[in-house]
Target: homocysteine desulfhydrase
Amino acid sequence: MTDFRTDAIHAGYTATGHDDAVSVPIYASAAFDLENSLRGRDLAAGVTQGFEYSRVANPTVDALERRIAALEGGIGAVAVSSGMAAVSYALMCAGERGGRIIAPTNLYGASVDALGDFLPQFGIEADFVDDINDLDAIEAAIRPETRAIFAETVANPSTEITDIEPIAELAHRHGIALIVDNTVPTPYLLRPIEFGADIVVHSTTKGITGHGNAIGGVIVDAGRFDWANGRFPQFTQEQQVIADPDGTLRSFADKYGAEAFIRRIRIKYLRTFGAVQSAFNAYLQLIGLETLPQRVSQQVASARTIAEHLTHTPHVIKVNYSGLGSTPQYDLVAKYFPRGVGQILSFLVDGDVSNVRRILDGTKLFAYVPNIGDARSLIVDPVNITHREVPERYKLADGVTPNLIRLSIGLEDVNDLIADLDQAIAAAY
Ligand SMILES: *Cc1c(COP(=O)(O)O)cnc(C)c1O
Model:
């Protein structure tokens, strides 16, 4: 077993078979030669491995998928065109045909909107709980139609930590899958599959790409969940698209076993809805991944220093950062995050929205953008930007108020960042 730092550079790709290119080439080709009629038939039937058409698979994207699967400890991955495509496909694949999903309200804004407002239009309903670590509340919400529990491993912008292990145990006792969004910590800080998660999704736009230059997402399958346990009719129904070469109809569970979920994502969701990752974006993400450990290590160290500084900065009345060492979730930090919790933190200031506006407009190094996980440091007011679509009652319960400011710490010198925040806050009052 090689170390994460080694896998971030080598996993999922060898130069052999790629004209000896040591850096993963960009395969800008819509289609791939099927070579002859027999091979073409077998490729289409999935009994021979190879590339046919880049909506379903592409060699550059394939290297990214293999590398992320290795870094997360999964059996396979599908890269898609955005984090929201990854979230939507994973939730729909689990919930299709009348399923229900249990989730907390402190999710990324578009995920709350998907679960609370949009997926119900497709017959998939959500049961929200106030606190995802309240096992009794989760158990009380489980119904015959419940298919999955969905949570972010570290919530944004509160940095609250999900206690994955007992939630996975509870889910599995009921035959329900645990799907987690691991965007904020990245696999360098947390590998949720090791704690029992079944499906891991990412917005690779953030820490994984790390330079704010590509939108992307990925779905990773742990390969352990039994999709034929009776709760998931979509996995046991026979389907033409995966028929054997002799015409025999097959179901995903029967044909692919442990790989049923990730195969269904590729063969049904990517093939039909088509939110495909481009080869060029996959290339940018592969380059970003090479330095993920080094970038995140430095960002975590800076985020901690800045969080501590803000706890004694005038006009700052509260700092949300689970990595501070003094939070109620300190035991969860020790259990899940020995390398730190991440580069996101948020803080509450006194005064009114005019003070908040002056801080946002007053920073010179922090860019005012909705993104996170960039090499540049970023600042945003979640209530107006990233969590705008979250219903008011959830925002209040999750501390997303007009005086909350979120930071994503980049790779600049930490003293320069502190000086920038200090001058912006001092000038805002
Ligand atoms: C940004 C983000 C998403 C959405 O990702 P996109 O790549 O912007 O579509 C989903 N979940 C979390 C936690 C995010 O931060």
The pocket of pyridoxal-5'-phosphate is lined by residues 82-84, 87, 108, 111, 152, 156, 181, 183-184, 203, 205-206, 215, 217, 372 (CB under 6 Å). The chain has a mean pLDDT of 96. Residues 256 and 263 are 7 Å apart (CA to CA).
